[in-house]
Design brief:
2 helices, single chain, 2 strands, two-stranded antiparallel ribbon, mainly alpha
Amino acid sequence: MRYLSDDGKVFNTEQDCCEHEQKVKRVNREQREKLQKIKSTYEELEKLVLEYGQLYGIQNEMYFIPSCSFIDALC
């Protein structure tokens, strides 16, 4: 008997299929967590740059890549 995973891969045993699906879920969760950490770090950086500009009178704003919209697209 063959087993089909959620992402369309075929396995010979149910155990192999379940292990694959658990691995995919773990990787997806880790990816979401890492992207959230990047997003929160970027937001903190934006706040620090704004605070620096207010303290030292910098008129030109600094821009950093990746932008939040880029990170949102990844989520």
